[in-house]
Design a protein that fits this description.
By secondary structure, the chain is mainly α. The chain is built from six helices and three strands, in the order αααβββααα. A three-stranded antiparallel β-sheet has the order 1-2-3, covered by helices on one side.
Length: 151
């Protein structure tokens, strides 16, 4: 976990791969909003409503990587076979990725339709939920895919 945190906080990682990764999150979140028929404008990582003027920037701290790291470290630390771990990592990370896209899109909707609660939804509710989803995915993986070995 500490090694992963050090990598995530490294400035060259922030400026390079994480920046690109975050841009993809912003793009996919915009597409999710567009599918609903709501007007949205994107300028790089800024998502904005041309109707209300609400705008939000999808920063590297908004890409869900800390939740991904928690899930990854938990799966790697759990006593399971490498095949079981691979299933947990691939499936869990993919599900968490799409949950985070939904998170960003939902925050855009909150900002457009209920801007007074945007900060609380962003800082408190979704921070808690995204980590909670990582833990739920861990528990589901343990229950469904990790088999006990005889002693």
């Amino acid at each position: 976990m500490a090694l992963g945190g050090a990598v995530l906080l490294n400035q060259s990682v922030q400026d390079g791969p994480l920046n690109s990764y975050t841009m993809v999150i912003a793009n996919l979140s915009r597409l999710m909003v567009e599918v609903t028929g709501v007007d949205i404008i994107q300028n790089e990582r800024v998502l904005a409503s041309p109707i209300t003027g609400f705008a939000m920037r999808v920063d590297n701290d908004c890409n869900g990587m800390w939740a991904h790291l928690i899930l990854l470290a938990s799966i790697l630390a759990y006593p399971a076979t490498w095949k079981e771990r691979a299933i947990g990592i691939v499936a869990g990370q993919a599900i968490l990725y799409f949950i985070n896209i939904f998170r960003v899109a939902s925050l855009f909707f909150i900002g457009v339709y209920s801007p007074s609660i945007f900060r609380a939804a962003h800082i408190y509710v979704w921070q808690f939920l995204i980590i909670g989803f990582a833990l739920v995915l861990l528990f589901v993986w343990v229950e469904r895919f990790v088999h006990e070995r005889p002693a």
